[in-house]
Amino acid sequence: MSRASSRLDRDLADLPEGMRWREWMGRAEAAIFVSATPVAREKLARLVGDACRLDALIADINDELKARPYEIVFVAGGYQFRTRPRHAETLRALAGTKDAGPPSFTRLEMLALSAIAYQQPVTRAELSRLLGHDISRDILGRLKSLGVIAPGPRAPQPGTPIAWVTTARFLEVFALGSLRDLPDLETLGSSPAARGEPDDDIEAALDDAFGLDDE
């Protein structure tokens, strides 16, 4: 713990209950506001008293933000300010806001990404077999350039190919707190495709899970 943190009066016992809660709200909001990455609960807990219920605190902050175009969401293991989804198109229309809203993916990129999310670590050959499409190095290269996948462990197969995994950026893009928040996709685990056989039904299942529209 830093010297500054150790000096911080977390409990604020001298303040009336209402003022104490408001001060904790301000601290949490400020910490999340200045951070470029999601702020973990453990970090926020260092700013407030042991009696502070963080979930209730964040809920009260968001309640005050209802009229604003942004809110605090739990993504990638922490809290982060995010513009509300309904404003994404407006932000994209502004010149110089290339990073506004989630990046766009082609249908095949999205299929590859969703399959990696559920089957990781997974090799390119396994992805191609699973989806019944050739997943090229270019597709994986673009997903990697967007920061949503990264090389994982080498697979114990001939040639020891790279197995791909999703990243914290993937969780941020899809507003997921962790991989446990992925939509339930029981059919993926029991389908012929999951056993390495091409299955046309897998695309429909992934479409439902990630909200893909037919082109």
Per-chain topology:
Blueprint: H1 3-7, H2 17-34, H3 41-45, H4 54-64, E1 70-75, E2 78-83, H5 88-93, H6 107-119, E3 122-123, H7 124-131, H8 137-145, E4 149-154, E5 162-166, H9 168-173, H10 186-190, H11 201-210
Antiparallel strand pairs: 1-2, 3-5, 4-5
Helix pairs in contact: 2-4, 6-7, 6-8
Task: Describe the protein in words.
By secondary structure, this protein is α+β, with helices and mostly antiparallel strands. It contains eleven helices and five strands, in the order H-H-H-H-E-E-H-H-E-H-H-E-E-H-H-H. The protein has helices at 3-7, 17-34, 41-45, 54-64, 88-93, 107-119, 124-131, 137-145, 168-173, 186-190, 201-210, and strands at 70-75, 78-83, 122-123, 149-154, 162-166. The strands form two sheets. It has a three-stranded antiparallel β-sheet. Strand 4 and strand 5 form a beta hairpin. The protein is elongated and about 65 Å long.
